[in-house]
Amino acid sequence: MVRDFGRKELEPGYKERCQKAHVPVELIKKIADLGLMGLNIPEKYGGFPKDTVTIGVILEEMAKWADDGAWLVFNNFSSGNIVGLGSEELKQEWLPKMAGR
Fold this sequence. Notes:
The protein has seven helices and no strands. It is mainly α. It has a single domain (2-98), classed as Butyryl-Coa Dehydrogenase, subunit A, domain 1, CATH 1.10.540.10. The longest helix has 14 residues, at 52-65. The protein is globular and about 40 Å long. The mean pLDDT is 81.
């Protein structure tokens, strides 16, 4: 699934996104629709169900196709602070939204 997504959605426009340093909202929505937003978000907050092997395969495929902007969307860098430091209320409010759920 991730490989097909990369080839169909990320490879086209890669150079342009890099030059503009811009990830279109439509692309972000497609990433969310696959359930791949915020790979570091625990499943109980809407994160992608994963084990070490699965996450490794996803990251390997994304490394082939994702520009820096799309890569940040997949890793949802801001969610890491909430996962690690946020209160339970903050996690329940924001992590499902950040996971695209």
